[in-house]
Design a protein that fits this description.
This protein starts with 12 loop residues before the first strand and ends with a helix. About 40% of the residues lie in helices and about 20% in strands. The protein has helices spanning about 25, 45-60, 75-85, 100, 110, 140-154, and strands at about 15, 20-25, 30-35, 65-70, 90-95, 120-125, 130-135. The longest helix has 19 residues, at about 45-60. The protein has a single domain (about 30-154), classed as Glutaredoxin. Helix 3 links the parallel strand 4 (about 65-70) and strand 5 (about 90-95). By secondary structure, the protein is an alpha/beta fold.
C-alpha cells in the first residue's frame, strides 16, 4: 500500500537509539511528526539531511513538531552519528525494516543493500499524512518540503 497525503499514518511503537519509547499515538492531538527514512548513517546525502533537520529543529519544535529519523543502521551507529553531528532528535534503528515497510520506504534496490529508501512524511496532530517528500539524492527537497508543510499546519 502506498501512502498518500490525507491518509491515516500507520501507528508505530518503537524505541530510539537512546532507549526512549516513541509511539505515534502519544503525539496525537499535541504535535506534528516529521518521520524521515534514510539509507545510511555517515553517507553524504544522509548526513546533509540529518544536519539540515538539526539546523531547523528549534524552529520545528517551536511549531509543535517532533522529528524522528529511521534507518536500518544499528543503535550504536545512530548514537555515534548523533554524537558526531549533534543531532538533537530521535534516531530509530529498523534493521528488519518493519517500520519502513509499513510506510513504503523499501524497494528492490534498497532491499538488496540492506537499506531503506529516502522518504519523508509529515504527519499532522490528528495522525494524518500532511506531506510526503521522496527524493533519493536531494536532501534539500525533503528539508524545503518539511518547512513548507509544517508552516501550513501552524
Amino acid at each position: 500500500m502506498r501512502l498518500r497525503v490525507g491518509d491515516q499514518a500507520p501507528d508505530f511503537d518503537v524505541t530510539d537509539s537512546a532507549g526512549k519509547r516513541l509511539r505515534l499515538a502519544d503525539f496525537r492531538g499535541s504535535k506534528n511528526v516529521v518521520l524521515y527514512f534514510y539509507p545510511r548513517d555517515f553517507t553524504r546525502v544522509c548526513t546533509a539531511e540529518a544536519c539540515g533537520f538539526r539546523d531547523m529543529y528549534e524552529d520545528l519544535a517551536g511549531k509543535n513538531t517532533e522529528v524522528i529519523g529511521v534507518s536500518a543502521d544499528s543503535d550504536e551507529s545512530h548514537q555515534k552519528f548523533a554524537g558526531d553531528h549533534r543531532v538533537p532528535f530521535s534516531l530509530v534503528a529498523d534493521p528488519d525494516k518493519a517500520l519502513a515497510t509499513r510506510y513504503g520506504a523499501t524497494g528492490f534496490l534498497t532491499n538488496l543493500i540492506g537499506a531503506t529508501k529516502r522518504i519523508t512524511f509529515v504527519i499532522d496532530r490528528e495522525g494524518k499524512v500532511a506531506g510526503i517528500f521522496d527524493s533519493a539524492v536531494r536532501a534539500s527537497n525533503h528539508l524545503d518540503g518539511v518547512r513548507e508543510a509544517v508552516a501550513r499546519l501552524a
